[in-house]
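Section 3.1: Structural characterization of target chains.
Under the original work plan, the team committed to producing a structural model for every single-chain target entering the pipeline before any wet-lab resources were allocated. The record below documents one such target. The sequence was received from the expression subgroup and is listed exactly as submitted; it comprises 185 residues.
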Amino acid sequence: MGHGGDVIAELTADHKEVHDLFLQFESTPPGSAHRKRLADEITIELVRHSVAEEQHLYPAVREHLEGGDALADQEIADHHRIEQLLKDLEGREPDDLDFGRLMVKLRTEVTAHADDEENNLFIQLRDAVHPFVLESLGNKVREAKKTAPTRPHPSAPTAPPANKLLAPGLGLVDRARDYLTGRGR
């Protein structure tokens, strides 16, 4: 869940972790229970990552980058599309005809979003923001992921302060549901 380093290192490590999960998913036989477990792991990691970015990264983008509002709005729009796909996947079984199609679409969206962040947004942040601030943001992102929801909530607020107030409660409920159902183990 936490990798260490500044915010860019932390989020880039998350991107790699999710990429590796997608590779595992693709090498798993269609319709298998293991595919569902991997889809759940991908969902958990993506939701935690997105919530942490919305709580800490995007407000910093708005504050420190020229055109930051537009950049943050675009990233949040990407998150919304991804979270809607995750919600569509949530009730599907691995042998459902739409399951594989939704996973391909999810991977395409996630890959494009991660590539854009790594090749555009993170470069701008590295150039514009003091390393101390980036390190502090990395710590905040790691902390946020600890209490973040683990299930998609596409209608939840995406901007502070509402997202910072609601996310821990949603996270608690999600983790209780995960515990009771065995999801994510």
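The mean pLDDT is 93.
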